[in-house]
C-alpha cells in the first residue's frame, strides 16, 4: 500500500503538475473546453489513463464545457505517489490533444 505523502512532498510534486492543486486529501484539476463533446472527450481520455494505471479518480463533466478530475488513494487514505502519477500521466495524454 503506497505511503501518504506529507504536505511538503505534495507541494514539491505539485510544482511539476501544471494546472493541478491540492484540495484536502485530493489533487484536483479543472479543464474548460469549447463545448460539451470536448468535455466528454477529455473525460474519456482521463478514464483510459486511469484504467491503464489502475488508479481511478472522480471525473465530473459539469457546467456544459468543464471537466473536473479529483484523485486520492482510497487504499491509503490520502495523496500518494499513485495520485501524482495519474495527474502527470493525464497531463501528458492531454498535451498530445492540445
Ligand atoms: C484492487 C485495486 O487495485 C485497488 O482497489 C485500486 C483500484 N483503483 C484505485 N483508485 C484509487 N483512486 N485509489 C485506490 O486506492 C485504488 N485502488
From TrEMBL:
Q: Quote the EC number.
A: 4.2.1.96
> Do the record's keywords include Lyase?
yes
Record keywords: Lyase
Q: Main EC class of this protein? A: lyase
Pfam families in UniProt: Pterin_4a
Presence of the UniProt keyword Coiled coil in the record: no
Write out the GO biological process terms. tetrahydrobiopterin biosynthetic process
**PANTHER family per the record?**
PTERIN-4-ALPHA-CARBINOLAMINE DEHYDRATASE
Q: What is this protein called?
A: Putative pterin-4-alpha-carbinolamine dehydratase
Can you name the source organism? Halostreptopolyspora alba
Give the source lineage, highest ranks first: Bacteria, Bacillati, Actinomycetota, Actinomycetes, Streptosporangiales
Amino acid at each position: 500500500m503506497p505511503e501518504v505523502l506529507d504536505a511538503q512532498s505534495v507541494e514539491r510534486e505539485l510544482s511539476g503538475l501544471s494546472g493541478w492543486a491540492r484540495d484536502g486529501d485530493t489533487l484536483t484539476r479543472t479543464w474548460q473546453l469549447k463545448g460539451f463533446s470536448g468535455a466528454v472527450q477529455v473525460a474519456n481520455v482521463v478514464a483510459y489513463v486511469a484504467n491503464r494505471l489502475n488508479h481511478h479518480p472522480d471525473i465530473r463533466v459539469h457546467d456544459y464545457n468543464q471537466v473536473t478530475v479529483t484523485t486520492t488513494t482510497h487504499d491509503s487514505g490520502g495523496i500518494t505517489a499513485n495520485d501524482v502519477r495519474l495527474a502527470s500521466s493525464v497531463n501528458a495524454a492531454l498535451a498530445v490533444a492540445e
